[in-house]
Amino acid sequence: MSSAPQRVIARDGQPKTEDVSAASLADRIAKRVTSTLQDKIESIKEVTLRSQILAFNASIEAARAGAAGKGFALIAEEMRSMSEEVDGLARALRDQLLSQVSELTARTRESVEAAEEKRLIDLSLNAVELIDRNLYERSCDVRWWATDAAVVDCAAQPTEDNCAFASRRLGVILNAYTVYLDLWLCDRSGRVIANGRPDRYAVAGTNVSGAAWFRDAMKSASGDEFVCADIEENPNLGGAAVATYAAAVRQGGESRGRVVGVLGIHFDWTPQAQGIVKSLRLSEEEWRDARAMLLDSKGRVIAASDDRGVLSEHFVLATSGQTQGAYKTKECATIGFARTPGYETYEGMGWYGCVVRSRT
């Protein structure tokens, strides 16, 4: 958590925003209180020292005066005793207040750190929830479009005319849904017989029978089922990273009809996912030491706010079996994470949202 950003002027004369955290503010106040306390205690010590010197000189003079100075000697002794008592009280007050200031500072820091950890968890959950809701819509799309009459007719009878019509129909869908790179209709053998952007991706005739999404869709029990594949770079789509969703195309478009083909839809992953992790509600100051990521079930970085390591880096989360949480590393970084909760009929794929703040 942080207080309102303060406006300051940089050395180059340009204004910049400086975020003063509650922990930093508490430290500053504690240092001021401690400094003031030390100064006042030193002032008291100086006064008591002068009192002690005065009492000592007074006792010397009283001794010189002999019997006439006895009463004055008692006063001098009392002054010395009082100054020592004041000095002791000052020392006790200093120790007590310094201990209380230290405890207050520690508790404030703990509270601020706990609030920051919760915020990082919330941001992580927000990221993975947004992608879940997005991909839930993809699961609905593929099941719906697999029942389209043009798609069903082409899969059942892949004549030249049917394939051309299905391709045009898929193109119309792509014009309305800009989040896809292409839609592929495959026959039972895994051969692509129609796609929505043949002018851009000449994939007709390509055999995808070895792809997990095709094989799993062919095994599906009903039209209510769908298949989602891990993020991968597809060489037939220019090497772009895609999230592929698939559903069996069934005779007559019926939920329990015989499988006559498979529809695979390729979600344009990078711009959608990067947009999510880069739009989390972090201040400009916080982004300077923060990194937001989406991780797949194996810990592979599938999206990152700094664009580094996407699809090549593995980030190990210390989840301790929890679906969400936060912890600190030996390098003083705070890491918040949250596992995909799923959305509606989409259970998710065990992905995690993750936000790392590195403190030096």
What are the key terms here?
Helix Hairpins; 6-stranded antiparallel sheet; 21% strand; Beta-Lactamase; alpha+beta; 5-stranded antiparallel sheet; 46% helix
Structure, described:
The chain has helices at residues 22-65, 70-145, 149-156, 160-176, 212-218, 269-278, 284-287; strands at residues 6-9, 15-18, 180-187, 192-195, 227-228, 232-234, 240-250, 259-268, 290-295, 301-304, 324-328, 333-339, 352-358. It is an alpha+beta fold. The strands form 3 sheets. Strands 3, 4, 5, 6, 7 and 8 form a 6-stranded antiparallel β-sheet that branches. A 5-stranded antiparallel β-sheet has the order 10-9-13-12-11. The chain has a two-stranded antiparallel sheet with strand order 1-2. Helix 1 (22-65) packs antiparallel against helix 2. The two termini are 18 Å apart.
